[in-house]
Amino acid sequence: MQLHSLRVKACVFSLLLIVAMCLFFILLGNSSLQSLLEKSRNDRYLTYQYQVSWLLQQSRKDLLQLADLVAVGREGDSGDVETMQRLFDRRWEYLRASWGLESLKLYANDRRPPMVWGESARQLAPEQVREVIISGQSLESIHCARICVQSLAVPVAVGGGREYVLQLDRSLAGLLLAFREITGSDIGIVAEVRGAPAQHPGDYLENWEREVIALTSQEILLPLLHRVAAEQEELPGLQYSKSHPFEGRHFDVKTMPVPGDGDRGARFVIVDDVSDQVEHIGNSLRVLIVFSALGAAMFTIVVTSVLWRPILRLRRLAEALPLLSEGKFDAARSLIRPVAKHSSRFDEIDVLDSTGLAVCDQLEVMKEIVSQNTAELERIAMYDTLTGLANRHNISEELNKYLHCGDFIEGTAYLFFVDLDNFKQVNDSLGHQGGDDLLRVVAQRLVSVMRFGDIVARLGGDEFCVFVRSLPADGTYRTLAEKMLKVVAEPVRIGDEMVRVTLSIGVVAIPEHGTTLETILEKADIAMYHAKYRGKNKYQLYTADLPGIEQLAEACAERPIGEVVAADSGD
């Protein structure tokens, strides 16, 4: 065969063309898969960062709940030190076993050392004790020494005007285990920068000058951290995108600071096994290379029959990969369309299709997780950030559901429109922070007199709303309104002052006084203003013969100064 023949030229040209096309698709596939892997890595670690933050918040809520339970569970009204010490002596073992506490400290004042139960960790400074007592706010901190501890100091008021500070210390070990259970990835904590190991020399990462103080799967992952620390001097942050091979596997190692610590403070270490993703990409590249060699060897025999369909499948895969970044997973799967056969009979394109489908499934799962987190944020938007109660949007939706349901057989529903009397003067005297504290106390007291299923909401400012379903129509609403008036009227300590506020309540029966949301709120507002007009600290049930707000304003303008209208607080 002559070298200058058309067949030779065609063969050489076809060979070069096939090689060029295969190289093109190899590079395209590798670039797309690497891009998807990097996007998957970034999304995953953003999720991890959110999970750590969420777990810390949940742990703080647990400690606050425990502090509330301890405060509520005091026996008797005596608040002397000996009584408190006996109380915690009895309960310490239960608290440690049930709540995972490392230690518990009780500060009687800022001049005496605290009473300590468990292994004592860092204690509060005298000025911190005074700050907690004076402000009435909890103080949270995280400190790492031998172990990492989340510490929460809360004020506790007891009988006789005594005030204590209760400090709860809880190990972060439970948080690490919960993170691993939720995400499937390992996590640990390295201590702040130290010149030498504090506990175990084998746990000290010399290049980073840090000691590993907690780590899930420590026997497997501690050697990996030693290798990573030896290979690079700087701690890998969340934006670090290099994986580390270790004992036949590939791992991502990233760190994020423990809240409250600086760059030299303790850090979380997240170790994620990415071997499957790396193996998928490597297999895809190997398969593409092998396919290129086979195609080049067989082109002289059946160029069109052998290469046309694989090229078409590769083109579909190339078109499907950008769809993954847009979230069009079904469209991407319809483009990939793997051939139905046993994995032992897979060719190179089949493996690439399988890899593409696997990446598609993983991204779809991650999108579902993000959607669930978005739904959680939407749920948070339904509650008032200051008091934790339902907000205006929430109570409006509940009323609309109840009204649209139209099932009023079980009893009468009532809407209590609550407004604090003279709140502006109280807010001006206490300051905005004191006013916010007072609103939180009022919210807690309103909730305390409600049944399970009743809804207490804050509409805004000093206005609250209580929606109660299925009350008997025999005046039971009076008892509930009187309870609200009584419990809120109890004096409350805000800072160094004792404050007493009262309520004016407008009551509307549903559906007797309205079957639309606008009508009910309007009539509740009228009834509330009548309660204020009648002397405040009262409630008023709406009736059809009540004058409107404009007529009530005219009556207030004509009312002589100092006149007191005495009337029964019923309907």
Key attributes of the depicted protein:
571 residues; alpha+beta; Beta-Lactamase; Alpha-Beta Plaits; 3 domains; six-stranded antiparallel beta sheet; five-stranded antiparallel beta sheet; 13 helices; 51% helix; flat; disordered C terminus
Walk me through this protein's architecture:
It is a single chain. Strands 7-8-6-11-10-9 form a six-stranded antiparallel sheet, with helices on both faces. A five-stranded antiparallel sheet has the order 2-1-5-4-3. Helix content is 51%, strand content 19%. It has three domains: 1-302, 2-Layer Sandwich (Beta-Lactamase), CATH 3.30.450; 327-379, no CATH class; 383-556, Alpha-Beta Plaits, CATH 3.30.70.270. With 571 residues, it is α+β, with helices and mostly antiparallel strands. The model is unreliable at 561-571 (pLDDT under 50). Helix 1 packs antiparallel against helix 4 and helix 6 packs across helix 8 (348-380). The chain has helices spanning 6-72, 81-99, 126-135, 173-183, 218-231, 275-325, 329-336, 348-380, 392-405, 423-448, 476-489, 517-533, 549-558; strands at 101-107, 115-118, 139-144, 148-157, 163-171, 186-190, 204-205, 210-215, 243-246, 249-257, 267-273, 412-420, 455-460, 463-471, 492-494, 497-499, 503-510, 538-541. The radius of gyration is 34 Å and the shape is flat.
